[in-house]
What we know:
Alpha-D-Glucose-1,6-Bisphosphate, Chain A, domain 4; seven-stranded antiparallel β-sheet
Amino acid sequence: MPDVKYTFEVQAPAEAVWTRISDMSFWCKLMPGYVSHEMIDERESLWTIKGDLGILNKSVTFRVTITEWDEPAKVGFTLKATNENVAGDGYFLAEPTGPDTTKVTGYLDLRPGGRLAPVVNVFMKQLMPKVTLVFAKALAKKIEEEYRSQG
């Protein structure tokens, strides 16, 4: 059961961060391997991500559902692959650290199933910290760029 928790600072007020982390269409595009997404409604969407786990290189479609909406601080979600045996959950938590700075904590837990789960787990445990670091940097950068362009 690979999971990863990461914390990063964003040079923008908590309200600006909330505007972006509460919008799945904003942050899903920053995921490494992003191919496409389709919004079903405000709390549910389908994402297609191209994954690369060594010898396994394929696209996976996830149904992402917002399960917690605690404005202006936390967004919780679940993920369930529609074409693979993988499920998970996660959240974003935004905490102001100053008038124009916000600490963001992200958490993601993915649980592969089926007979190949032990092998997939090994690859995912190695890959997830790298992927989440790339994602966290991209998210912080994009939020900061948008905040500066509006100010």
